[in-house]
Amino acid sequence: MTRLAPTSVEEIADMVRDVRALGTKLRIRGGDTRHRTGLVEEHSAVLDLSGLDRIIAYEPDELVLTAEAGVRLETVVALLATRGQHLAFEPAARAGSTLGGAIAANIAGPRRLVAGAVRDHFLGFEAVNGRGIRFRAGGRVVKNVTGFDLPKLLAGSWGSLAALTTVTVKVMPAPATVLTLALDGLDDARGVAALCRACSTAAEVSGAAHIPGGATLLRLEGFAPSVAARATLLDAALSGFGNLRRLDDDEGRAVWRTLTDAEDDAASQWRLTVPPTAAAATVAALAAKHDVQARYDWAGGLVLLSVAADGAAVAPDIHALAKAAGGSAMLLRDRAGAAPCAMFAAQPAPLAALSVRVRAAFDPDGVFTDRMAGN
């Protein structure tokens, strides 16, 4: 298989036009951390964007960063830390992931509760579409964005619409104090109930997770006096669930990382978005049929599943249970050697038709592989 390694936008456009003329396909690759995600269509070449790795502009006073899409996330995080800032959406990404890849996947971490999704921080971009034409959309600040909000569309498109080349994101001040609190000994239903109770208070929780067999976790961020006052509030609000214990800083950081970058390569990895009140019952129903390990994030609204089976083998049960709960499921990463499996369930006909029209507008000849198609 041919690996194309452009170092400029002009080269990307030329390569896409060449592949289109040949009638073949390209798979877009950044850090290559999601190569076992979704369907793998036949393609003649990989478009490796990791060579586009420059920070173009960082304006701390304006809370804006512009970079080439192939820049590593760890590079961005380290740069922002020098000015006491961070990516507030807390990207759920593996080591080696790129900024463009994080945007294309639109997978946010525990702080999504208060900070929103990746797309909510994605201000603008330059990209190359399936015709090999460069285009741009958005801007450096939200008030400058007019017309169709294309950044929202490309976030979560998994490289199926265009090759992102340059991206602009909003950054935020990092919290001065971070405190992680834990409740021990709760089963899944009680753990999720405690999270929901905490989020219904004025404590402004920035992380709410339950790890079965581990602990029920809450995170508070801000200035030290405010964090201390909100911790006291939670002590009272959650007294019926047990005693809250304080984790030290290192332990707290480590436990939240398990919700953003810990994945078991021997299992298929799924993300279920369901109403928190249905989360524990949905996991229990799935566990009755399959060997499942679950972690709950977003106060139970997100269930991270590791299933000891290929994605295709469990997809019917997972999609059916997610739908019955009023939610949806996404196959994030399959086991090595597994048969190809779509990331999502089949779309209703009207939505599927709309997806086809949108893709045709960006990539009429299907140059870019589509890993998301419903099964």
From TrEMBL:
Keyword terms of this UniProt record: FAD, Flavoprotein
Residues of the FAD-binding PCMH-type domain: 1-174
Molecular-function annotations in GO: catalytic activity; FAD binding
SUPFAM superfamilies per the UniProt record, alphabetical: FAD-binding/transporter-associated domain-like, FAD-linked oxidases, C-terminal domain
Family annotation (Pfam families): FAD_binding_4 (PF01565)
InterPro entries for this protein: FAD-bd_PCMH, FAD-bd_PCMH-like_sf, FAD-bd_PCMH_sub2, FAD-linked_Oxase-like_C, Oxid_FAD_bind_N
Database matches in PANTHER family: D-LACTATE DEHYDROGENASE, GLYCOLATE OXIDASE SUBUNIT GLCE
Protein name: FAD-binding protein
